[in-house]
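User: Okay, second chain of the day. Same drill as before: sequence in, structure tokens out.
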Amino acid sequence: NCSADSHLRRKDRRQRDAENESAEQQAKMLVVMQRIRLTWHLFGVAFSIMNSNPLRTLIENPMVYHNGYLLSMPEPSDAQLLKASVGQYLFINKSTRQKYFVQSHQMRIEIMRGNQCVGKINQNGDIIQTAVERETSRDDSNDISHDETIAEQQSPMVQAVIPREYRTLGYIDARSQSDGCRSLSEIGVYILRCLIECCLWLHQSQSTDTSVQFVQFLGVSPKVNANKKMSISKDIQTKIATYIAKLEKCLARSREDIVYILHAILHRLYLEYNTEYPAGDHQRTDAETRRKFESFFMAE
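Assistant: Same drill. Structure tokens below.
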């Protein structure tokens, strides 16, 4: 009898374990299906509104943003440094190619030493330069005359060529960055980044292989194979789940509620985008277009 009871208990335990495992698998499948439905809703909206919208661009060819300003991407620390260096001049050492800042009264000495003046930092953190600075950066050996100094003061300011590391270009893995940027709230950032990852998931899944350019766009190892494709897909899905979890915490709502809210936002975008952008968004990779879209998104 004892042996029979022990056998029955083991059998019951195995059955319960199997039922628990089945329930866990069903829960995981539900989460995956929620992501899939959200992503395909996004696909439908992106291809129903004006065809030059940023979401459709990300689905079709995200590499357009490789040298462009992508929605909700953070300001890098270098850009924050520029904003904290208003009124100073950015120089590049002629020997080491290191970049450094100097005050205006030091600028003439640095140019005489043969170092390149990239430009002056304005109140927005942009690098600007005058005609005289452009000339002296071309010919480092020239001294600056009194007339040139006057010309510098009178010449109009124009946008300089900004070093790549000082520009907020392309896709940035924002998981390690601070949340909230420009006009976007913390919640707005999470929503937009979640939608961006959905777009990238659609792009990655629509082809039989993952292009080297797309892998480089994501900033991961350039070696492409079947395992890499699966790894990228898993990583993108993990990011989607991460932003949904952050929204759950911020809004104190369940995952199901957050997914419903995201569907409602996509429907709102479907209703309002063509009114705000009747001709589409043809200059969609510049900083000003990004700022306007983010402001429109927050207002809606």
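Residues 208 and 256 are 31 Å apart (CA to CA).

User: Thanks, on to the next one.
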